[in-house]
Amino acid sequence: MTKSTRRKFLASVSLLTLAPALQALPMKKDKNVLVHHVFFWLKNPDSKEDLAKLIAGVKSLSKIETIRMIHVGVPASTEKRDVVDNSYAVSELMFFDDEVGQKTYQDHPIHQKFIVDCSPLWEKVVVYDVINV
Residue 16's pLDDT band (boundaries 50, 70, 90)? Predict the structure, then answer.
């Protein structure tokens, strides 16, 4: 399995396991819940300062009113397996009521400031947006 295919598979599987959590979130049940999962790779992966700045920047996004839930994390020290990609530095997982809420987030001044302040830190970003079925 290629690295790209494996990443897509892992992202899909990880998002599918979140279904029970979606039911517990305080969201409108008649809406199409949107999950926004972003992975960041640092230009300087050994820099603790860059990592801390990126984490702080991602956490600042929680002030955006359309985000219903946010989880910010780093790779876990779980068992090393071929299907686990822990090459990224930081992950953000966000839940929105719908695509309108996600669009509001994209255009929000806090998000735009985050991009200006933190984009010099990352080498690569991968985004998975998923809508419930």
Answer: very low
**What helix, strand, coil percent values describe the chain, rounded to 5?**
45, 25, 30
Output the CA torsion 86→87→89→90 (10° steps).
-50
- What is the rounded CA–CA span in Å between residue 99 and residue 130? 10
> Distance of CA 82 to CAs 4, 31, 48, 112, Å?
13, 36, 27, 36
pLDDT in tens, 83-118: 889 999 999 999 999 999 999 999 999 999 999 999
Which pTM was predicted? Answer: 0.77
- Please count the structural domains in the chain: 1
**Residue 47 sits in which domain range?**
3-131
Q: Helix, strand, or coil here: 2?
A: coil
Q: What is each CA distance from 104 to 10, 18, 109, 110, 129, in whole angstroms?
A: 27, 23, 10, 11, 15
Q: In CATH, what number is assigned to the domain containing residue 39?
A: 3.30.70.100
